[in-house]
């Protein structure tokens, strides 16, 4: 299915379009995702990545979420080739229980369920390797600041609320896609239409 989507990449007026998938974050979060990047000028592009995981994690564990992360990128040479810097926004919703999260986030999530949303901002640096006229490989790393509001529940399936809280933190955040409360060293396979 992804290959058929990639083969449909085409021009949007005078803008070049790239269709991409964040393989590293997708595999780490079991989060199917898709991104689209539009060329705005000779040095700027706008990317929007969307991650969605409606699938149960198995047993009492939960790892359901969706999030979107638009990013404005400045390219040092040309769009879709070489070094770039980015600034991104993030918004997402999650429902997680009995999981082990990186960076010590939500330590109680191993015994309780956390349900909430998050907003954030981040910056990134990356490099796009041109593999062929229509294929590329991109890597990026970034850091972000997240604000989350959540409610805690006693167990993964029951509705007894045990509290609610707001929390802010800095964390790795890939600059182009998720990217969010988890990791942010991302690798994507990209196709570009000329």
Short description:
6% of the residues lie in helices and 57% in strands. It has 2 helices and 9 strands, in the order αβαββββββββ.
Task: Work out the strand percent.
Answer: over 45%
Order of helices and strands: HEHEEEEEEEE
Distance between the termini: 22 Å
Give the biggest sheet: 8 strands, antiparallel, barrel
Give the helix tally.
2
Q: Largest beta sheet: what is the strand line-up?
A: 1-2-3-4-5-6-7-9
The count of β-strands is 9
Radius of gyration: 18 Å
* Low-confidence segments: 1-15, 175-194
Mean pLDDT: 76
Structure class: mainly beta
Broad shape: elongated
Helical content class: under 10%
Notes on the structure:
The radius of gyration is 18 Å and the shape is elongated. Residues 1-15 and 175-194 have low confidence and may be disordered. It has helices at 2-7, 23-28; strands spanning 17-22, 33-39, 44-53, 62-75, 82-97, 113-130, 135-153, 161-172, 185-192. By secondary structure, it is mostly beta strands.
Layout: helices, strands, pairs:
Elements: H1 2-7, E1 17-22, H2 23-28, E2 33-39, E3 44-53, E4 62-75, E5 82-97, E6 113-130, E7 135-153, E8 161-172, E9 185-192
Antiparallel strand pairs: 1-2, 1-9, 2-3, 3-4, 4-5, 5-6, 6-7, 7-8, 7-9
